[in-house]
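This part of the workshop introduces the protein records we will be handling. A record pairs a protein's sequence with a compact description of its fold. Backbone structure tokens are a discrete shorthand for how the chain folds in space. The question running through the whole workshop is how a given chain folds. The record below serves as our worked example for the rest of this section.
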Amino acid sequence: MIFHLKKWTKNYENRKNSREERFSYCWPKTCTNMLYPIGIQSFEHIRSNGYVYVDKTDLVYKLASTGKYYFLSRPRRFGKSLLVSTLEAYFSGKKELFEGLSIADWEKDWIEYPVLRFDLTGQSYSDPGSLDDTLNTQLFTQEKNTVLKRKPFPQHLDFGFS
């Protein structure tokens, strides 16, 4: 399901005590219970399994096609991981996931790029070498799955990033 925020109207007439009834919305003359992606941070999972997705992909296209560098600083639970997952699907050329979304009107080429995604959640980086170890482990794992290969780095660097 794709919903644009401006077109949502709540169904207040038949509100009941159950959670499903309280979160029932009307979409042009038909009411359905929406399946909310609470805690789901994968764009592909949301789009493939019928969860509600508020279409902001026009902004994703503008983000990807303008500017050079972005620093995404948002509070917790504000959709940073979902945005990164959406960008990953976009740059991986997964056109089928974007069918019916506004980005489909903007993007015509759907070029597939190699995507390296690093997940730094769930660990403490209090030890000076722990971040280097985590990044090297993830890079090594992703190198095995892609055609990208690192160039040799000078000896004074003990990790593959510069």
In short: DSSP finds six helices and five strands in the chain. Residues 130-145 form the longest helix (16 residues). The beta strands are 2-3, 9-10, 24-27, 30-33, 53-54.
